[in-house]
Design a protein that fits this description.
The complex is a heterodimer of chains A (378) and B (145).
Chain A: E1 2-5, H1 24-30, E2 32-35, H2 101-104, H3 109-118, H4 137-165, H5 173-198, H6 214-217, H7 224-248, H8 253-283, H9 288-304, H10 315-325, H11 331-355, H12 369-377
Antiparallel strand pairs in A: 1-2
Helix pairs in contact in A: 3-5, 3-8, 4-5, 4-10, 5-8, 7-8, 7-9, 7-11, 10-11, 11-12
Chain B: E1 3-4, H1 8-20, E2 34-40, E3 43-50, E4 53-54, E5 58-60, E6 70-74, H2 76-89, H3 98-104, E7 110-111, H4 117-120, H5 122-125, H6 127-135, E8 142-143
Parallel strand pairs in B: 1-8, 2-6
Antiparallel strand pairs in B: 2-3, 3-4, 3-5, 6-7
The chains are: A mainly alpha (378), B alpha/beta (145).
Chain lengths: 378, 145
């Protein structure tokens, strides 16, 4: 046992000496205790020497030895960091429902997390707000309508992954970290569209109700993969298209930057969903039919269009058409552009599902997306 | 002396500007892992990003398009119009950003041979990096042969 100076009032097992006439403060500074130092026992894997790569010291660079091993099933209910030794008798601090690897895993989670960290941006200083100038009333109203809708949507897109983070064992910290970064992204999206609505003489419009239906129902998912197929594949895939359209129809450099940077973030969230679904395709054949059902449901909502602002006949789709056309007077031209981009959105959706390993549904008649596209083109 | 667009020299001069300016690492730029190609008329230039840098740009034949995540394809005159717009404005103006060129053209700008949307989506995921790269061309002298 080692002896050393310590603060006396913390511990009871002290061997200290008091000089006559010394104050208590001096006494505490000179107290001697016996240090146990049993925490210094090297209980885990030691002698790890992680080396930075071209992108710095990333999570991928520290997947060394047992620290890189992810359990197929986790019994970790105590918040213990993966690779650390368990503490006997520790309390359960998490009631994690996601404790099976293939419920949440994807191969590139650590890569997406580093990408999210390194490609952050500030809605306060990276958007050239000074370039915004007064716009015609119908254009400003359409921008504010879209900004209101997107603020609502991003509210859900932040809430939903946040709930699943707390449900997931710390052993699967890589996907957890990506979701944590996504919550930050969504917070920024919420604030940047709110800022846009308030930056140019307009304001927020009436709540669109977009989050009351399909978007809101994402939060009703009882399974992570169900949630991810709704949120990352169909929901964020659609919003990615809206952001790209937003960049196309921007009336100033500030709006260009807003939509372009949001699209980058959204594409990363979509990549999470595609890679998770690809993992499920390869590692969980017993769940394929279940996932096909999630996609059936997602496609019904995409095709109905009532909750998809790039769909038909919604306040948000009217706003998009007005922006794309250049005003109410050019609505028809804007609507034609909107439909062309919507067809492209559906093609991209199908190719993502194919990339995720579930492309047969577009060949065996299960999916109606191709038929919908043919009707739309006619 | 002005570099001729398109040429390896032109791309590598832009690359030097891009790699040496830290401001391109923030504001939505930053780490980028992507293999892309610029198809300019019939000519193909490989543009690979590794970490925070762009690798040396080389000209290749059309067969190289099979190996990239995505390629941007426009007729020479359209590429020249974009580069001229960037030079005139210090960066792409509203009608010449890469995303706008992609959506505003019936045939699109971004393509792939493999048709894997996960890889094609890298154009969206790293869009600001590619925009920064081409906007950096405003800082070199360009001639159009």
């Amino acid at each position: 046992m080692v002896k050393g100076p310590y603060i006396g009032y913390i511990l009871g097992d002290l061997n200290y000496r008091r000089e006559p006439g010394m104050s208590e403060a001096v006494d505490l500074a000179t107290v001697e205790i016996e240090l146990k130092l049993d925490w210094m026992n090297r209980q885990g894997e030691w002698q790890t020497h992680a080396k930075p790569g071209k992108s710095g010291l990333t999570l991928a660079d520290i997947q060394i030895g047992s620290y890189g091993e992810t359990p197929e099933i986790s019994d970790n209910m105590t918040g213990r960091p993966r690779g650390a030794q368990a503490r006997p008798g520790s309390f359960r601090i998490g009631n994690y429902s996601v404790r099976t690897k293939n419920e949440i895993w994807l191969e590139n989670a650590s890569f997406l997390y580093e990408e999210a960290l390194q490609r952050q941006w500030s809605s306060a200083t990276d958007v050239p707000w000074h370039t915004i100038e007064p716009l015609p009333d119908d254009i400003e109203e359409a921008q504010c309508e879209l900004a209101t809708f997107l603020t609502e949507v991003e509210f859900v897109a932040g809430d939903v992954p946040a709930r699943w983070i707390s449900e997931t064992t710390p052993d699967y910290f890589e996907p957890r970290n990506v979701l944590l970064a996504q919550v930050m992204d969504e917070a920024r999206h919420m604030d940047v569209f709110r800022k846009r609505a308030l930056a140019n003489g307009g304001g927020l419009m009436q709540a669109t109700g977009g989050t009351a239906g399909v978007v809101g129902s994402i939060d009703l998912a009882r399974d992570f993969t169900e949630m991810s197929s709704r949120l990352h594949i169909s929901g964020e895939g659609a919003v990615l298209t809206i952001f790209r359209m937003g960049e196309l129809m921007a009336y100033n450099d500030a709006e260009k930057a807003i939509y372009r940077l949001c699209a980058q973030d959204e594409a990363r969230h979509v990549a999470f969903g595609v890679m998770h679904m690809r993992y499920m395709s390869e590692e969980a054949p017993d769940r394929h039919e279940e996932i096909e059902c999630y996609l059936d449901e997602a496609e019904r909502q995409i095709l109905a269009g009532s909750q998809n602002p790039a769909g038909n006949q919604t306040a948000s789709s009217e706003a998009l058409a007005i922006l794309l056309g250049g005003g109410v007077a050019h609505y028809d031209e804007g609507f034609r552009k909107l439909m062309a981009i919507r067809r492209r959105q559906l093609v991209e959706y199908m190719k993502r599902v194919k990339s995720a390993g579930f492309g047969k549904r577009f060949e065996n008649g299960r999916s109606q997306v191709k038929e919908m596209m043919a009707v739309s083109a006619a | 002396m002005a570099s001729v667009f398109p040429s390896e020299d032109w791309f590598n001069e832009v690359r030097s500007v891009f790699n040496s300016d830290d401001s391109y690492r923030g504001a939505g730029g930053g780490s980028c892992e992507c293999r892309s190609a610029m198809k300019i008329g019939r000519r193909v230039f490989l543009l690979n990003f590794e970490g925070i840098e762009c690798a040396p740009v080389v000209e290749a034949d059309k067969g190289a398009l099979a190996d990239v995540d995505f390629y941007l394809d426009m007729p020479l005159a359209d590429w020249q119009a974009m580069v001229k717009d960037i030079a005139a404005n210090g960066g792409a103006s509203l009608h010449y950003t890469l995303n706008t060129l992609d959506l505003d053209r019936a045939e699109g700008l971004s393509h792939s041979v493999h048709e894997d949307q996960f890889r094609e989506d890298l154009f969206f995921r790293y869009n600001q990096t590619f925009q920064f790269f081409f906007d950096a061309s405003a800082r070199i002298k360009t001639s159009f042969g």
